[in-house]
Structure formats: C-alpha cells, structure tokens
Amino acid sequence: MREILFGAAYYDEYMPCERLREDIQMMKKAGINTVRIAESTWSTCEPQEGVFDFSHVEKVIDAMEEAGIHVIIGTPTYAIPTWMVKSHPDVLAETVNGRGIYGARQIMDITHPVFRFYAERVIRELMKRTAHRSCVIGYQVDNETKHYGTAGKNVQEKFVKYLREKFQDNLDSMNAEFGLDYWSNRINAWEDFPDVRGTINGSLGAEFEKFQRTLVDDFLGWQSGIVKEYKRDDQFVTHNFDFEWRGYSFGVQPNVNHYHASRSLTIAGADIYHPTQDDLTGREIAFGGDMARSLKQDNYLVLETEAQGFPGWLPYKGQLRLQAYSHIASGANSVMYWHWHSLHNARETYWKGLLSHDFQENDIYLEACVIGKELQEIGSHLVNLKKKNEAAVLVSNETLTALQWFGIDATESDKGKVAYNDVVRWIYDTLYGMNVECDFIWPESEDFGQYKMIVVPALYAAPDRLLEKLNRYVENGGCLVATFKTGFANENVKVSHEVQPRILRNCLGVKYHLFTFPKKVMLRGDMVEGTDNREAKVFMELLTLDGAEALAYYEHYNWNGYAAVTRNHFAEGYAYYIGCMMDQELLKRILIKALEDAGIKNIVKEEFPVIVRKGINDFGKSVWFYLNYSEKEQMALYEGSDGRDVLTGEPVKHQDSISIPAWGVRMIEG
Predict the structure, then answer these.
(1) pLDDT digits (tens, 9 = 90+) for 626-654
(2) DSSP readout, 562-626?
C-alpha cells in the first residue's frame, strides 16, 4: 500500500436525515481517506427476492469518488433478509439448541444451498456495480464469520463423509481412536451414525467442532472466488477476523481457524476491541495485531476498532491517538473505526462512533483530526512496516477445543474456570510487558527454524508429527519453552499410554505420572528467591528429572521432591518445561533465562507501561515506537541508531533519554 488507510464504517442507510455531503466535509477535515460500506444491509440492497436497489451504495460511492476518499465494499451476507426466511425457514441454522428464530444476525446455515444461491446472486449484483469504480480499493467478504453452531442434518451428513475419508472407511479404526466403546457409544455401521449434537465423547465432539471450522474456510473461500471473478488486479480481498470475546477481544477464536481461513484472502484483516480509560494496556491491540500479521507474515488491515465504543470505553484525552499508533506499530496498514456516526436505534445504539448521536464535533472527533493530519504528513514512513521477530508463540485451535471438553481445572461436576486462552494470554502478556515482540505460529506452519525461541502454551492435543517437529527444532539449536498439559493427547484427543510427556520426553528431560490441583503449594529454588508471590496455581504436574535440571521445586509437605520448572540442554538447543501456573513475575524470570539461552538479545530496558515496538519502513529505516500506557509522563532510553523524531524532525541520538507524555507516543526513525 502507498498510505495508511484511516477511516470508518459508514452507513448512509442508517442515517435519520440526509447529511452525506456534510459528513464528507467532516471526514476531509479529519484526514479520513477510507470508508467501509455495504456489508450489513442485504435487506436494503434486495428488499424483495430478485428486486435489487443499490442506490445507497452507489450514492455513497459517487460522493466518495468525487471527494477522493477510498471505499472498501463488504459483501452483505452476514445478516439475511426477512423474505428469505419467510420462504425458506430452514436456512436458519439448526444448532445444539434447535432451529434459530429470525432476528439476530449470523443465525443462518452457511452451508445451506438456498442461502448460498441468494448470497451468490447478491454478491454478483454488487460486484457488477462496484468493481469498476476507481475509488473502490478492495472487498471485505462477509463479516466476522463463524460457523454459528450449524449442525443440521445436511451438516452432519457432510461430517460423516468427512470421517469416512479421514479413517478410510474403517469404522474399527474410528471407534478405537475415539474410544467409542465407552458407554456403548460404538458405531458399527455408518448408517447408524447418531446425531452428534448429543455426544458425550470428547474426541468425537472435538472432531465435529474441527469439522465445523472447515465450513468457515469453505465459505470464505467460496465468497473470495466469486469476488475475484470481478475485482481488478489492484483491488484486495480481505476479511475482518475477530477473536474470542470476553467483553472485548481476548484470545484465539474457538469457531474459526484463522490460519486456514485466511488462505483465500489477499490480505488479512481483524476487528480489535479493548478496554480503555485506566484499563488501557495495549495488550489486546498487540495480541490481535500480532496474530493478524502472522497469518500471512505480512501487513494487515484493522477494519474495525473503537472510537467511543460503549460509554465505559470513552477514551481519555490522548488515548485514541495512542491506540491508532499502537495498531500501526504492530504492522497494521489501516486504522478504521466502527463507526463514523452513532446509531439512533436498534441493537447497537450505544456502541458509539467518532460522532455522537448529535453529529457535532466532539473531543474524540477532534483527536481523530489530529491523527489524520499527522498520518497525512508522516504516513509514508509508517506504511508497510515489516518485522523480523526472533520469538514465536504456537497456538492451536484443536487444543483450544480439547480443553473445552477436558478443562484444565475441571472436576466431575465443574468444567473449570481456566481455559486455553487464559494460558495463551498468560504467556503472551508476560512477553508483551517485557517488550519481547513475537509472532504467532500454528501446527501447520512450515518454518519453525526461523525463530530462536518458541513458546508452547498448554498444547494438549497434538499430532505426533508436530511433537517430533518440536524435537527437531530443539536438536537443531532452538529454544523451546513448553507449559503443563503439552503433548498429553494426540490430535484425536486420545491420551497416550506412554510415559508423559511422551514424544517430548527426551527433549525436555523430564517425566511425570501424577498431576493435581495445587493447594497451599509454594515454589522454591534459586529461580524464585526474593519474589513476593511463590504460589503454584491452577494445575500442577509432579515432574521427575530425567536428564534436565530443576529451576524450581514444589514446596509442600507432601509434594517436596517433585520439580515444578525444568531446563534441559538437548543436542544443540534448550528445552524448558513449566509444570504449573504461577505469578507473572516468576514466569518472567523463566523467560529471561530462556531468552538468554536462545541468544535473543533484548536490548530494550523498558517494561510496561512503556511499550517499545519496532519495524522497518519502505525507506529501509527502522522505526521505533515508544508507547506510554499510563497517566504519567515516562522516560525511556532510545536504543536505536542515531535518527530523528518522525513527527517533529528533531534529531535523536543512540542512548538519548526521551520523554513520552501521558497516554502518548514517540516515534523515532533510525
């Protein structure tokens, strides 16, 4: 791209009055150069079956083209019109809770042939009217797509075909691998295959969820294929992936495998939402950005992030600007708000945009004007920032699902409170606070060897070939940091009968037979001395040394003698194993030692609330971002080569002490 895309979603269809020209004037003042339109208004574009009205779309395109503002078109398929459901009620997804009732968005069966027929038709009609327009720079296929729990008869028939292919039509093999003899769940004929929504078998249930995720891959690939028939070579195809939602963007998305689903796109995209005010840390911005960038090992688009958002998210002065540069510091080539204006009715009335309900200038809009003006002046130095990180975190949708079936701290009557994403964020947030930038990798990622250190949080369900690949990674000189629950079951969630941690046992130099929940258990050893919180938390594996050295032991009258954290020098590399959860300060100490073994020289002295991120721009120069996530001015040591402040042009020398204002940012081009 040639510039940072700065903009917002814009819906002329939702406006209570005519104000397109006035909005464009305000956009131009704010430096907005891109709007995203059309993705949520199928019932407006096709009010009755086969009757098309794209006047709103064409009206906005005409006005934006005249104003010199780019347009991203969204295919309007994630919220279906009433007439379709009236004529074809079975397009609504049948889930574990039964058939849905019309009203909410994203309640359809994305595999249903009737839905697909109408979706294809409206996409083609939209493409005919927009692909040739000069202001249209790209397309977003659908919106935050997931499988929506679809599990009707047609989906289950596809699942049986999928299983027959996976197990080469061998029922005995499937029964053995899934353990279906238990409680007489054995299936002796494919024709007898039961409704999988009722299964109590974790292996079968997890496999069905894995299959459901492939439906998203197929659906987005299908839409992308249609769009690519019409789009110009200079137009991109993207999608706005979202994350596990805990009131904001939190972790790996359970219902989509981003890595697989992104293959049909030309550029990855993401929607990233997060707390603000005193709770603004930048962690969610960095997590979502690092994951989106890692999908294609390239720059990505932030297609939605908050301006005002919910009333509790109204940012303090300076925070909107800090957030924008935080996205760019992760490699984003766009910052786009949801949305331009605030809605006057309907579900998201109080999810507010850049403008409030009165459409007047306000502090948030005026801060956007500052951002827009700065990006017009310096954007060429920030676009297409490239990163070469030496550390990576391995994530797995299969493990996420498996640990939903078999929770980390689950009991017979309680599924537990600590989930896979809690462990992922425990690892990631600690690295983030240390200013260790990292990529994400997936089990299918090819080149593990490009990283000096790979951290593997709770990789519960893993195929043998992945564990063997991690073994080779260490043998060849890599540094592996694995946590409890890693390698315990195979890809079919079948627990190994070998001594744990099975294939990784030699690499890690440990073994264990027992595990439990820690109660009044502390950690002891040189690694933990002097820390305020030495408590073992959530889950503990009782490790026996088998070649490794212990960095920490359990301190408890019954568990004394068992190791909690180990380090093993294996062939050319090092392997660490963390047998329990613990305070982040202790985890940080372990990671510091692992970074030393990995040969990663983290020259940044600062830690949170000063976040330092780096990239190489199109001029081949390094850009250092110093982001202050606090209400107080902070000082930092500039560790790059002699350069200049990107905004002021003032010279900055290596080892200069620089000030970063409260909720502010400094950018230095070295």
Answers:
(1) 999 999 999 999 999 999 999 999 999 99
(2) -EEEEEEEETTEEEEEE-EE--HHHHHHHHHHHHHHHT--------TTEEEEEEE-TTS-EEEEE
Distances (CA, A) of 104 to 81, 108, 623: 11, 10, 44
Question: What token pair was written down for 529?
Answer: 């001395």
Render pLDDT for 605-631 as a digit per residue (tens, 0 to 9): 899 999 999 999 999 999 999 999 999
391-598 and 610-669, same CATH topology? no
User: CB pairs under 8 A, 24+ apart, for 559-565?
Assistant: 559/521, 563/510, 564/523, 564/536, 564/540, 565/523, 565/525, 565/527, 565/590
The CATH architecture of the domain made up of 610-669 is Sandwich (2.60)
Q: What are the start-end ranges of the H helices in 187-230?
A: 202-230
Q: Which residues pair with 300 in a beta bridge?
A: 332
pLDDT of residue 55 exceeding 90, the answer is yes
* Strands across the sheet containing 622-628: 610-616, 622-628, 665-669, 643-645, 651-652
User: Could you give the C-alpha distances from 347 to 83, 343, 614, in angstroms and in order?
Assistant: 21, 9, 39
Domain 391-598 of CATH type 1.10.1040.10 = no
pLDDT value, residue 498: 94
The DSSP line for 490-529 is: -TTSPBPSSSBTGGGHHHHTEEBS-EE--SS-EEESGGGT
Q: CATH second-level architecture of 5-149+215-381?
A: Alpha-Beta Barrel (3.20)
Element housing 14 (H / E): none
pLDDT in tens, 325-360: 999 999 999 999 999 999 999 999 999 999 999 999
- In the chain, where are the structural domains located? 5-149+215-381, 153-205, 391-598, 610-669
pLDDT in tens, 115-136: 999 999 999 999 999 999 999 9
